[in-house]
Specification:
It contains three helices and no strands. By secondary structure, it is mostly helical. The chain has one domain.
Length: about 80
Amino acid sequence: MSDVFAAYRENLEKLELEALDEPDRLFAISYLRSHLDLIADEAQETLPLSLKRAVESTFDADNMSKADRAEVLSLIDKLHQLI
């Protein structure tokens, strides 16, 4: 998801340079950028939980042991702590 956010931000910067003499367009770009930033912040905060839910839903189908399940969930926590 971060690649999409990065692409949106990059393209908004390009559009901003093209719209320097268009106040309405600049306002719209600024407005959109602020909401994009909010969504990115929310996504970053909810990523560990979303990832946990995604992997937990596959544990049974993959016949993962309790130890392997715990290790995977522990790694998700570790990844989030390293940010």
